[in-house]
Amino acid sequence: MTKNSPFKGNRIYSPYSETKHRWLKMAFHLHSDRDGFSPFRSSPEEIQEKYLEKKYDLISITDYLKISGTESKDLKYFPGYEWGRDFNRKHILALGAESLIRDFFPLYASKENIQWTIDQMQKSGAFIVISHPGLEGSISYKILERLQGVDAVEVFSTYGDTFENWIRLLDQGIPMFATSGDDLHYFPGELIRAMKLPLYQRIFHELTFLDQNEGEAFVRYILLNTHSTERDEIIRNLKKGNYVSVIKIADYMEDPKITELKLTKDRIFAEFPDKFLKIVFIGKMEKFSKKIN
Q1: Is residue 272 part of a domain?
Q2: CA 167, 172, 173: angle at the middle one, nearest 5?
Q3: What terms describe the molecular function in GO for this protein (predicted)?
Q4: Pure H helices in 195-247
């Protein structure tokens, strides 16, 4: 394996060369009651219903080692799963996967084991995301530096955002996009209480809420720039990086809107339909290249 070196050359890569399409609100890293690890999770149908109410265009329910396959008439249901057992927190999202790679390393996964798994996922054409790198026991950035074939890392996560670590990856010349995901296991308490659940489920959730185990939803997602919701087109734009990662402070806040993003020679062009408070361009070593208020 060759040592990583900083990016160099006379051309800047722009993932936004085709932004005259529709920005679709897409959520992935969502868990339902099908995987059996956590009791009384919401069903795929309940998750679809609630995310549809929040105006999502695409969702991918990524249960542990189970590929989603149902489609809603109102909401495009994108296939995917999360590799790795719960007692092994080295988890990987395979979005767009049509075949499952089993976890042959449930007790211990070395760097070589993980690399083999990623290689198999790439053969299936999936968009590969390293899950929650800030969570203890997960695939860390130190391991990430030595892996090949990873498309993105979950920089914005329920278990902690790792923006600075991601920037350091880019500083080393490692091409890897960032994603943002809710990692939904349970809906927030307020929403759970409003749902018409059986009594035993309501009691279970109230007990977990006493332990401050409320879930988070609808605050971490991506805006994907694509003219089609066909699998191949979504995968193409994901792998190209033709999307924006979003994290909202609270669910009730208005969703950000984008008109156009593009790079023209040495100029970055960004157009928004609404006013913004501030835009920050960050360069090498986390230095602020430009602030626009």
Answers
A1: no
A2: 95
A3: 5'-3' DNA exonuclease activity; 5'-3' RNA exonuclease activity
A4: 199-210, 231-240
